[in-house]
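not sure who needs this but someone in the group chat was asking about histidine kinase from Proteus mirabilis so here u go. i didnt clean anything up, its just raw.
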Amino acid sequence: MHLYRDEYYLYFDIHDTGRGINEKMLHQLFEPFFQVSQNTESASEGTGLGLAICEKLINLMDGDISVVSQENVGSRFTVRIPLYGALNSSDGQTKYNLYKESTIRCFISIKNLYLESFVERYLSYVGLHCQLFTEVTQVSENDFIITDHDECLDNSCQFIRIYEHYFEPAKKISENNWLCSTYKLNELIKIILQLPQTKLESDDSENNALMTDHDLQLLTVLIVDDHPINRLLLTDQLKKIGFNTATAEDGCDALAFMQENHVDIILTDVNMPNMNGYQLATTVRELSSTIPIIGVTANAIAEEKQRCIDAGMNDCVSKPVSLTVLKDVLLTYVA
């Protein structure tokens, strides 16, 4: 196994020198209960759930997993996970300053000390300096507390409750109470930016990306992705930009939707079952449609972009897609 970091991603390369996998079987590899070897007498017999579980866990971290294999040679699995909040080593500057001209304060009260330390360090990367919440801490309505306690520590401020048994996107559950998954701590920043009195100081492009353009509500972006979590994430981002959205699970589902509904832009994952993004783009172009098609790919390389263009797409973006990049690319194709 080889572990390395490249820009804002953490990579795991796992080399398997076994028998290799037939190319026809690769697209089924991450399906539950699928096994390459059907030999029931094999000493390595399993349930066929391992890779399916791995993929789901990686997707929960907004990551992806890919495989390259050759029969009688072996396989290489590559896991890529985004490092949210990673600093740019060239300037060492934080991306945001959430406290400009504000009296807001951040407090932490987390039972798990390792998690508490991680949250504190993560928020420090974006300019938030947190304090520990104690029984004698005095808070105001402008302050907020990040906690994993079930009971309410103080009713006079905002609460962000992190919960290990919650797996959905972060949401507001009451006037001053937010819920965030322990496995999606990158969403803490999104919550904090919505709290009362929070000011954001960033570059102009980031500020523009967080502003809603009401004119865009007349345009529908069709999100095509076989993973529900990815569809939810992209839907949330597009609504922040101001677009109306619709979703489809694969290329076949997308074509069926387009027969009955008007779509202004297609935002599609490139790797999907039944009909992938490349096949979808080719089919749409064969229908003489000029609708803008943007591919979403795990490989931020020139060859991958060229493959998207050759299939009929207008452009492509790499995962994880930031709000700024998404808005800049989509607005390029808005008439």
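also Residues 2-34+48-82 form a domain with the Heat Shock Protein 90 fold (CATH 3.30.565.10). if thats useful
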